[in-house]
Structures are given as structure tokens and as C-alpha cells.
Amino acid sequence: MKKFIKLVVLLLAAVLVFNLSACSGERSTNATSKAEEKGIIYGSAPESGTLDPAGISSTYYWYYSAFTLAPLVELAEDGSYDCITAESYDVNEDMTEYVFHIREDAKWNDGSDCTSKDFLNTIQRSLDPNCGSGYSDMLFVIKNAEEIYNGTADISTLGVECSDDKTLKFMLKEPCPYFTDLMSLPVFMPSNVKYATETNGEWCHNPETSLANGPFYLAEYVPEQYCLLKKNPNYVQADRISLDYVKIVCIADTQSMINAYKTGEIDIAPADYTVLGEYDGKPDLKVVPSITSYYTLLNWNVKPLDDVKVREALCIGINRDEVCASAGSDTESSTFFVAKYLTSKVSGKNWVEEIDPLFTEDIQRAQQLLAEAGYPGGAGFPELIFKYPSQQIDADMAQAIQAQWKKNLGINIKLEAQEYQVNISDRRAKDFDICRMRWTADFADPNTYLTMYTSDSTYNDSNIICPEFDDLMAQANVNTNPEERFALLHEAEKVLIGKNFAFIPILNKQNITLVNPKIGNFVIDPSRNSYRYKYATLSE
Amino acid sequence: MIKYIIKRILIGIITMLVLITVTFFLVRLMPGSPFEAENVSASMIGTLEKEYGLDQPLYKQYINYIDKVLHGDLGVSYKKGISIKELIKRGAPATMSLGIITFIVSAVIGIILGIWQATTKSEFIRGLLVSYATLGVSLPNFITALLLIMVFGVWLHLLQIVGLSTPKHYILPVIAQSFGPIATISRLVKTTYTEAMQQDYVIMARAKGLDKMHISIRHILKNAIIPVITYFGPCIAFLLTGSFVVESLFSIPGIGKEFVNAISNRDYTVVMGLSIFIGAAIIIANLIVDIICSFVDPRIKLTN
Q1: What is the predicted ipTM?
Q2: In Å, how far is A237's CA from the nearest CA of chain B?
Q3: What residues of chain A, 213 to 232, have a C-beta less than 8 Å from chain B?
Q4: Parent domain of A138
Q5: Same domain, residue pair A33 and A127
């Protein structure tokens, strides 16, 4: 028996040593960091993708790059642009050429120069379909980029020039007034030309080769667990950095994230509406409207959804506040397609503050329209199928809409919950009558929403054909006057939703975060409507 | 014995081949693509699928995959951009260390509780142990895990609930994972131990005045343990391949969580690679258990 007990103890010890040897870095870092340095621990979604800006990007990359990579320019809270790695930039009159002048003191954390070739390196690697980046098509505004991606043009024909180490010139295929907004995207971030040669390669996880030009650099990386970032003294605005380190920890799901915040294991936890009651009135709770729109697609090829009267009836026959009450307290009703709180670069206000609602909910008028379309009181209306991903918010939203159409218009809709990937697949194949859709802006410009539904767009899954809208979008795309361009975009949205009721806007979501009250000096990043913590401070 | 082991390995290889074939086609039957996401356009998905050879006929993709596997190449994750071997190398230490500790804890405590249950004369203790055994087999591990997190992590702030970086981090996930197996093992041991206690050779040993501990271990437990060892096979396989729920709740970077996420993400190569890994683990665990059984009870002839 004694031998048996000894054996068990030995085995347990061996197993612990085996695993701890892999995690020894974390323990030692924790010990020194906590005792001597000032830093924060940030909870992140589990790791997927890589840390290569030209590679397969994921939520984890966004958390990482927000601290380690500095863009040429970035959007400030008031809608203006701050030059970060660039000193200045010039735009030609028709907005087809952008020249960025990179700061002389722009350096990587190893002290080497951050040059125009580092930016070009990411762009060129992103144009190889093998890179797996979901943002490659954001480069297609550059001359020949799309052709290079599709293999019909040589990389040497790309419309990007590096005349010297500190000048980066973009030649675009058509005017692009929102081009500077794209600079926050991964494909426009720099990657060191000396080390970042293999896309999705091991270099991006190795602190020796994964260099940073941002406020922090990668000091330690443990796959699927955490990455430790330390203050980069070579950053162009190093004097603004207050923290010594930031640790980004992978946590599996939102509930675990909230629990980890409560135990004090993390300082910042992206959370959900379940914490609203518990933390109401407490300084930990931070709520920011997101730039995510939830809406319901109507397939124009399915009868009677090809009839604008039916579409309008379905659109105005919903009480959105009731839908939001079902979908969760972190939602807000919306009668716009473009997210209500997208910052307008023209006025600095929110998108919604610049115009009147696109339509008004009106049950009586909806009933009248339905009768005019040949379905009085819903009689004879076919039983359409509403497909949605089987996630809580989508299920709650679909059930509330189904109940309201039944109650307000007398029509029966059949609900079909689907696995997330199956739902996307069916939508892409245009195999639906009614389908839930969600869109989060890639960059802070209404263009990211509205171009999806031009007649020739590959995102146009509901077969929308609206020449008037196409024409307005075409005008907006070449208009270089910001005020006129935004007026055209507002008009285009009005035609798409307020006149043609192409689909049904339902709600916008909010970003809910729990932040340790000791953390201060963090501001909203309008390009993503979430917080920027790179200059955060930590009080005693 | 060697003949038997070779035979079992050959059967294992055939089983693996069937597993790979069935999994390959079942996974591909699911609608969707690894590259589909809300912000990716249809034309880009087409280009990416072409680039990764997913536009080819299914039988061609299958032949290519088998060819790669036979050359030791399990492919690259579509979602993470790293090789499957690397993915297993990353996830296996966490899952396996947790699995081995859980197994040892379950086996030791389960056997002790089983013997205690079979030998105690106290009705109260027996009732308590029976209640635990019933609760243990009927309570899903996610409930146990959540209760532990709330009590020891959130309310009492005694233990950490994220990851496995220090020995303290192991305490809660090990308890959550071993709660069920301890109950199962103790029930099994109690039954077989009680039966063995009635055997003539045990009565003879007692009559000869042998030491109680000696009778308990040499005569009763040795015979009572065989059915329990057969349970160890699937138990080890289950623990070593990881529990999705426990790994998710405690944010453990193991392969169980990876496997389930890969299915949702249509990351075909990861699903295939982990199926092969898990399949091999189950086959090997069962083979080892059979060999151990033959050592414990020489009457078990493996060749038959």
C-alpha cells in the first residue's frame, strides 16, 4: 500500500512539473510584474487566427494590435484624424492619390526604422489569397490590387509606391474619400520587412521577431493562454504611455469573463447585458453604443416580398421597443440601416443626429398597405420562413417579430433556427424568404454599410435591385466634398430603406465592459465604438 | 501476448481508417465553409476555397487528405493558420495533465470510498456515501464546475478560475472533472468488493488469522479491482481527450474545447486531426487496460 501511495504521489508531481514547465514563464512574469510594475490584465475572446496583420485575423488580433501596432493615422473621438506614425499626408484634388509622410522618429521596438516598406510588406502579403485574411478586399480600392488578388495581374503593377523610406504613396483606381478610415484595418498596418516574410508564420508569435511600432511590444506569448506586452520606449508618443505592461488573457466565454472579473483575475472584461442590473450605478460598468446593426433581410425574388407595399407593411408593422425588450437590455431600437452612433466626420455628431427617422412605425397604415397589396387582415398571405442563427438574441428577436406580425398584421411566419454557419451559408446561397442579418462596420464610414446593397455587390444576398440607390451611391463614391458626399449617402439610405423598404432595420447593440475603477484615461475609439486603453492610467 | 498486441494494433489501424473516412465525409456534409463569416464577401470566399483546394470534387479531396496523413501531415488549421501537429502540441499538455491528475484522484478516492462503503458498519456513513455516489453519477460536470466557480472563486475568492498556470489553478477543474468518475468507481468497487468479501478464500484467510490489511489488499481488492480496471479504459480516454465544458468554464487551452470550436467553425483539418488523435488515444488506452487486466488476473488469456 505504501508503495502504491508513493507511486501516486510521484505521478502527481511528475504531471504537475510537466505542465508547469510549459507555464513557467507566466508565473515568473506575474511575480515580477505584480510586485514592481504597473499594468492591467485584459480579458479577450479565445485565440483564433494569427497576430500577423496580413494573416487570418480574429478578435484576439484586434486586442493585440490596438496596443502594439500604430497606424499611419487614426480617427479621434471628435471625428478628426490624428497622425500617429505619419507626420502628415497629402491628398490630390480628385482623391485618387494619397501620400503619407512617415515620421523620421518612427521606430520599431528594437530601435530600427519603421519605413514605408514595412507598410508595403503587409499590403503585398495580404494580396495573396493564401494569407486567409478577411480584409484583403479592403485593398481593392488601390490600383490593380483586386487583379493581383485574383491572379490576373503581377504584384509589380500594384498602385503603391515607396519613393523613399519615409514616403508611402497610394494610387487608387477611383476617388476614395474614406481612404484614411481604412488605415485602422489590419491590412494597412506595418509588419517588419526583415522578419515578417512568411504570412501566418511563426515570426508573429515570437517576441524576437514580432516587432511593434505601437505603445507596447510583445514580451511573452503563450499560445491559447495569454500574451504579455511591455512598454515600448521607441513609440512615437512614448511620453503618453503610463502603464508598464498589459497582459491579454484568453477567456473562453462571456460568463467566464465576468466571473474572472469578479475574482479579480482580470481588470477589463467585455461583458453582456446580464451584468447591467448587478453593476447598475457602479463605476465598473461602461456602456458604449456599438456600430452593429441588426436587420431582417427580405428576399426580393420571393413573392409577395417583391411588392414594396408588403415590404413597407412588414417594416412599419413592428414595435421595435417591444422587440428590444425581448432581445435584452443591451439593445436599442433603430429605424436606420447605418448604425445610429456611427460618428459623422462632417459634423462630428452621430449619424442619427444628422437626419430625421427614415420611417415611422404605424400599425394602422401597415394594415392598410397589406390590404392594398391583396392581403386584407393577412388573409391569403403565404406562410414565409424566417431563418435565423440559433443564438439567444436572434431567437428572441425572431420570436418577438413573429408574434408582432401575427398580432398586428394577421400573418403567420414560420421560424427556422439554424446553426450559425448554416445560416450564413443559406443566406449566401439566397436560399431564404426572410433572414436575420447583422453588420458591424469595418471602418467608420457609412460606405461600409451602404455599398453592400448596390445591385452588383457580392454582399447583396436578398436580390435588391434599386437603380435610384445605385445612382446615388455612384455619385457619393466620386464626390470629394465631404458635406455633399454625406448628404448623398443620407439620401441613398433614405431611398433604400425609407422609400423601397429593401429590408427591415430592427436594433443596434451596445458594447458592455466591466473596467476596474482604478483604470483611467481611456477614450472611445470611434472607428470601432469601443475603448482605447493604450494611454490608460492606473491609480493606487 | 505479442501476437495479441500485433493483432490489436492491426485492428486499431483499420478502425482508424474507418474513423477517418466516416468523419471526413460527415464533416463535409455539413453546410457552410471554413471561410464564411459575416464580413467576408462571396467572391472572396470563392477565391479562398479555390486556393485551399476546397473547390475540388470531394473524392479528390479525400484521396489528397489520406495521402497527406500517410505522410504524417495532418494539414493546417484554416482558422488559425498553424499546423494541426502544433495545435495538438499546444493543447495536449493542458488536457493531458488535467486528465491524468483527475484520473489518479478519481481512482484513489473512488477505490477508498468504495472499500469504505463496503466495509463500514455505520448506517449513517453508508447512507452518506450512497447519496454521494448517486449524486455524483447524476450531476453533470458543468453544474459542479459552475458551483465550484461561484463558491470558491467568486464568493470566497479562495481559488483562481482562469487557466492552469499554477498548482492552485488545478484544484477546481480537477474536482469538477473527478466528481462523476469518483462516484462511478466507488459504486463499482463497493459492489465487487462486497462480492469478493463473501468468497471462501477470504473466509479461509480470516480463519488463518491473516492481517486485515493483507486480506483487504492481497485477497479482496486484487480480485475486486478487475471490473474497475475495465472501466478505467474509457475513463482515461475521456479524461485525456478533454472535456469541452470544463475546459470552457475554466478557460483551459485544451484540445476538448478546440475540437468543439472547430466543428462550429467548419475548420475541417482541425476536426480531422483531433478525431485521429482522440481515436488513437481511445484505442491505445483500451489496449493498455486489457494488458493490465491480464497481469492482475493471469486467468485472463489475451490470445483468446
Answers
A1: 0.74
A2: 32
A3: 223-226
A4: 70-195
A5: no
